[in-house]
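Support reply, case 0932

Customer input (verbatim):
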Amino acid sequence: MNLSAAVAHLERADPVMRAIVEIVGPCTFQPRADGTHFEAVARAIVFQQLSGKAAGTIHGRFHGIYGGRAPEPHELLATADDALRAAGLSRQKIGYLRDLAERVARGEVPLATIESLDDGAAIDALTRVKGVGRWTAQVFLMFRLGRPDILPDLDLGVQKAIQLAYGLPAMPAPKDVLEIGAAWAPYRTVASWYLWRSLENGDGQGGE
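Our regenerated output:
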């Protein structure tokens, strides 16, 4: 992804986004290339609905079962529930992880070739897994595959940043996020990154 071209487009397309870019500064968006796609989806499941510190602890114990590394699908399927529970995983998340491993092993979720799929097909494939919704799939496409034009319309941070930056009386609904973000295409991933960063800045343009 050409970040310079993306930022230039956003600044031209939307004066509000241009103000956010000026405040946040250079874009340092970088997809995560380490590990495997399977590991990335499994990590997303482990981290769901937990604080970063608690999730990190459980994730570390989960990898500890396999000598400090991420398991392969067949290794996860061969692991007893008791061992996974002892790592701190809930029964629900164990079910999600097993469903992921089973579907990958059967080829129903083609993680090895997912980069060849377009955005819609990749999201459809990922959301076949129990516990992987559209938001999780979108974040995978953004931060794992580096897809340039993903706008996570369900994300509360994106919604909050848009409300503040555009002076809206309430948080925008997903359909409103998509409508406002239409001008940002084909670089809505970079726009989302800026919206998230704007909340961290504590300024008047998207900050708290």
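We compared this against your earlier run and they match. Two observations from our side: Residues 91-106 form the longest helix (16 residues). Residues 203-208 have pLDDT under 50 and may be disordered. Please reopen the case if you see a mismatch on your end.
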